[in-house]
From TrEMBL:
Species whose genome carries this gene: Allokutzneria oryzae
CDD domains reported for this sequence: NTF2_like
Protein name: Nuclear transport factor 2 family protein
Domain SnoaL-like: 11-131
Superkingdom: Bacteria
Amino acid sequence: MTDNLAERLDRVESELAIQRLVHEYCHGADKQDLRRFTAIWHEDAVWAPSPDQRFNGIDAIRAGVKAQWQSFQQMHHWTANLVVDFDGDRASGEADTELSVQLIDGTWIRGGGTYRDVYTRRNGIWRIIYREVSSSFDIDRLPPGIGSPVT
């Protein structure tokens, strides 16, 4: 660890900025807020939400999340255990997530996984350059109507 106060402050600010990216991902996805969701990515980012899906570039990421929103009535993420390692203006991160989604037919699915991220700082701003979801698992699949919101 460095004794240089400026370097230590930069590290703390950088870690907080990256934590914010991780949280904004969840808020943007869950609230179907396209502006919020796309603000966390660099233009040339890659998002791999599953082993069989890979979106290259912000336009493809935007289209990918919109397609997800068409498949779900609701989506709720909780992300924890974020660990970030820095190498100058590049960092890698790993976080666990649990999520609940309500499909169009009303069925609820709960599951989780691990986000493996790469972040870069360009022009003083941290954003995600690469995110892959791995180690996905299903907690349970509930029958339609169970856990549906009260209207």
